[in-house]
Please model this.
Amino acid sequence: MTLGQLLKHIDVISSGGQAKWFLQNNDVLVNGQSENRRGRKLYAGDQVELPNNEIWHLSSTAENS
Model:
């Protein structure tokens, strides 16, 4: 799963095309580091923190979505 796909899956954005804009205008952290690439691959155990301090931990099943 990519970061853009996750944002769409959890309803942060309504379409994949909005991912680039969202990531350019908001601080999103992946494993504690700022990330602005919508194509960033996410793996089991990764932690994604959104601007509203919402934190998502990816499980092994999320990779296969």
Remarks:
- The domain at 3-64 is CATH 3.10.290 (Structural Genomics Hypothetical 15.5 Kd Protein In mrcA-pckA Intergenic Region; Chain A).
- The chain has one domain: 3-64.
- The two ends are 6 Å apart (CA to CA).
- Helices lie at 3-9, 18-25.
